[in-house]
Structure to design on (655 residues):
């Protein structure tokens, strides 16, 4: 018999995860037990929102030092708390915009809300994992929920195709990540990020190429999840085929979670070898920005255009990772928060204007919107300007921080390429605005049914986009605080 | 003796993997996959990981392969229906790039023999404590959180299977 020593674990540190898991189960049980009496299942949306709010309350605030628990495999620091806020905000907004959509598409299953909550658990685990094993399990929890959500519309062939494609390619990419993790374990003898860092600083020269091979494989696995070129082939088809609310979900939260893991793994564990991985990320950043923006110009379907724009945004965020300084990381965190507001805002308006079975998804269908629904057109214009990075919106501030971080680290060429790409992106974002205001309508704008939920989501997104653009200093302070405790 | 067994089993695994890809009949492909899994189980035994080897045989070679065979037989695939290769122009560049990659890895590995770190779980230690006991101890102490989260993962998989497969 062996002696089993009881380890230190702090159940409070995983309280947000427990809350979300509990509410996910409650949603499922309520759905099954009261399915006859529920009617339109509003209560499930309320319950999920309540879970999100309670989880946000228990994970609010800041902490002066990093708190490790579960034998140093799980960490609560300001960085993970900030990411928890991003995940909960994006999930909450997605629940607001999906409520009406799910009913309209006739896929209003209770499992939808449960899976979204479970997926958020995976994201939180990725941001708080201090151990490669935890990050890997978090990634799986997040991804498998999204594979299922993508195929939720069973009667639609493109939805099935998107789900299968995402599942097969995603499993393949996860294989790369896991192979990288196992090689790193072989080279350094640990899964723990801090122990890996210590080993590399003290005896890094003995492991040699193994570490580079492992880091390269981890970059491939996570690069797939953030949709960076050349691992982006799945993005357009999956974004187009998935139900629009799910597209909104997967374009924000999982991307933020993968970036959270990216920064923590590369900066904490492999900070001492950063001259090596910076070269890889440098090439990825240039490819991702350029391919995303150039191909987006040619798109006529708005969902596909947003898919390529999401690739391009991953490219800007990779620029911040290349810079790898304090300003770069804080710029990336700020940009991810603004991305939540502007991207979910755009998708909310796409949902309002589309019709059952993805009708009216072409950019030309937006012609004349400026006269028929001026408020919607103004909100859409604001979000698109923010994505293009035009002041006084939040997108401008985010890009400003990221590119100045790149210049500060000496990557002037990279910053110039990023700015040229921003200029290209203005073309396709403004094209939608031009169509909205300067062309005669080609479709009937029948009286739109707009639920108060989705209006709330649009209003929150508008306020967020403007507030972060005009008064960024307060959030910037919070962001800078959140990276102090990381290393 | 152990070294010879390693080379034999590694060769069996690699050759079976090649056959798995080039075999036209899906049932034969699955049988080659079983071969790979069993030879890898022997490699686990050589490393002193009896528990993992047994699980590999029971779960992969046993349960999952039976499931694979069921699916193939239900789909009633015949060898004659060959899949059309839509991207045949990729074949030659892929082979060239593969050779370049292999030689690059070979050059790097020859220039500097990489050494891993000796982990804390040496075969003497594992033998001392016991294989299964050690895995259980790790799962319920150090890796308790990932182990518990795996239950959510399985739950999601169950929900997903039901929601995607059930007919209206």
């Amino acid at each position: 018999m062996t002696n089993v020593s009881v380890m230190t674990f702090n159940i409070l540190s995983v309280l947000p995860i427990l809350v979300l898991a509990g509410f996910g189960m409650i949603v499922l049980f309520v759905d099954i037990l009261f399915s006859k009496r529920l009617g339109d299942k509003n209560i499930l949306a309320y319950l999920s929102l309540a879970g999100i709010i309670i989880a946000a309350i228990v994970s609010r605030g800041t902490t002066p030092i990093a708190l490790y628990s579960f034998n140093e495999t799980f960490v609560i620091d300001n960085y993970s708390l900030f990411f928890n806020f991003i995940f909960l905000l994006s999930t909450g907004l997605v629940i607001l915009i999906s409520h009406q959509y799910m009913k309209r598409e006739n896929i209003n299953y209770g499992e939808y809300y449960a899976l979204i909550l479970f997926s958020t658990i995976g994201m939180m685990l990725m941001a708080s994992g201090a151990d490669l094993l935890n990050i890997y399990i978090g990634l799986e929890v997040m991804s498998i929920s999204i594979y299922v959500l993508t195929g939720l519309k069973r009667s639609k062939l493109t939805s099935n195709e998107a789900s299968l494609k995402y599942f097969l390619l995603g499993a393949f990419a996860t294989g790369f990540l896991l192979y990288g993790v196992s090689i790193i374990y072989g080279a350094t003898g640990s899964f723990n990020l801090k122990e890996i860092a210590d080993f590399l600083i003290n005896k890094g020269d003995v492991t040699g190429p193994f570490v580079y091979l492992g880091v390269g494989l981890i970059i491939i696995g996570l690069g797939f999840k953030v949709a960076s070129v050349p691992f982006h082939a799945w993005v357009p088809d999956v974004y187009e085929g998935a139900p629009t609310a799910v597209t909104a979900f997967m374009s924000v939260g999982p991307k933020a979670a993968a970036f959270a893991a990216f920064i923590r793994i590369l900066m904490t564990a492999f900070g001492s070898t950063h001259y090596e991985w910076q070269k890889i990320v440098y090439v990825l950043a240039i490819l991702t920005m350029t391919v995303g923006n150039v191909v987006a110009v040619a798109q006529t379907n708005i969902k596909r255009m947003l898919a390529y724009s999401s690739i391009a945004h991953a490219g800007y965020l990779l620029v911040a990772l290349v810079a790898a300084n304090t300003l770069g990381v804080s710029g990336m965190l700020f940009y991810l928060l603004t991305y939540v507001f502007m991207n979910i805002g755009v998708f909310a308006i796409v949902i309002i204007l589309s019709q059952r079975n993805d009708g009216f998804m072409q950019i030309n269908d937006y012609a004349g919107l400026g006269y028929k629904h001026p408020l919607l057109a103004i909100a859409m214009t604001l979000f698109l300007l923010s994505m293009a990075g035009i002041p006084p919106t939040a997108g401008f501030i985010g890009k400003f921080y990221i590119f100045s971080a790149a210049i500060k680290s000496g990557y002037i060429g990279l910053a110039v390429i990023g700015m040229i790409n921003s200029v290209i992106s203005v073309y396709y974002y403004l094209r939608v605005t031009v169509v909205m205001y300067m062309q005669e309508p080609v479709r009937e704008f029948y009286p739109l049914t707009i639920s108060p939920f989705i209006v709330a989501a649009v209003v929150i997104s508008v306020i967020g986009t403007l507030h972060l653009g005009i008064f960024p200093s307060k959030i910037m302070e919070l962001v800078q605080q959140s990276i102090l405790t990381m290393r | 003796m152990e070294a010879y067994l390693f080379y034999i089993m590694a060769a069996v695994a690699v050759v079976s993997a090649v056959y798995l890809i080039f075999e036209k009949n899906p049932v034969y492909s699955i049988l080659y996959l079983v071969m790979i899994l069993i030879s890898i189980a022997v490699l686990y035994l050589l490393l002193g990981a009896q528990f993992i080897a047994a699980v590999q045989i029971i779960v992969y070679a046993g349960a999952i392969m039976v499931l694979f065979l069921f699916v193939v037989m239900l789909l009633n695939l015949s060898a004659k229906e060959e899949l059309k290769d839509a991207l045949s122009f990729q074949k030659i560049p892929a082979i060239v790039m593969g050779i370049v990659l292999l030689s690059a890895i070979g050059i790097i590995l020859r220039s500097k023999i990489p050494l891993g770190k000796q982990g804390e779980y040496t075969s003497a230690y594992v033998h001392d404590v016991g294989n299964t006991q050690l895995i259980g101890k790790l799962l319920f102490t150090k890796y308790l959180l990932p182990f518990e989260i795996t239950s959510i993962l399985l739950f999601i998989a169950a929900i997903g299977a039901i929601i995607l497969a059930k007919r209206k």
